[in-house]
Amino acid sequence: MNPNLTPDQHSACLEILHRGLVQIRLASVEGDTARAEAIADALHNLPHLLGVGHERGWDLATFVELFLTPLTQRYPDLAGIEQPLELR
Fold first, then answer.
1. Per-residue b/e over 22-60, b at no fewer than 16 CB within 10 Å?
2. For residues 54 and 34, what is the distance between their CA atoms, to the nearest angstrom?
């Protein structure tokens, strides 16, 4: 586990991963591969953050800045995907 994350942040990240996977499934069913790809691209780094991301200096703010913010700018309706991070 990344020691830079609190237990609440760790749980919030898992919730974001869950929500993202649901959104990928919905986009896939609707045939919106660009949306599914964008969500997957943003979230595929999340397991690394949860595990050994601290070795590269990763923290929650970096993940949000590099991956979640660009995703929600492109797809504003996904802004709620970050909601569990209010625990930080």
1. ebbeebeeeeeeebbebbeebbeebeebbeebeeeebbb
2. 30
Q: Measuring CA to CA, which residue among 13, 78, 55, 11 is closest to residue 70? A: 78
pLDDT tens per residue across span 32-75: 999 999 999 999 988 888 887 667 777 888 888 999 999 999 99
Angle formed by the axes of helices 33-43 and 7-29, nearest 10°? 160
Structure tokens at 60: 């929650």
Q: How far is CA 49 from CA 6, 53, 57, in A?
A: 12, 4, 9
The answer to whether residues 11 and 87 touch, using CB atoms and an 8 Å cutoff, is yes
Q: pTM, whole model, 2 decimals?
A: 0.85
**Contact 67/45 with Cβ under 8 angstroms?**
yes
57: left (phi over 0), alpha (psi -120 to 50) or beta: left
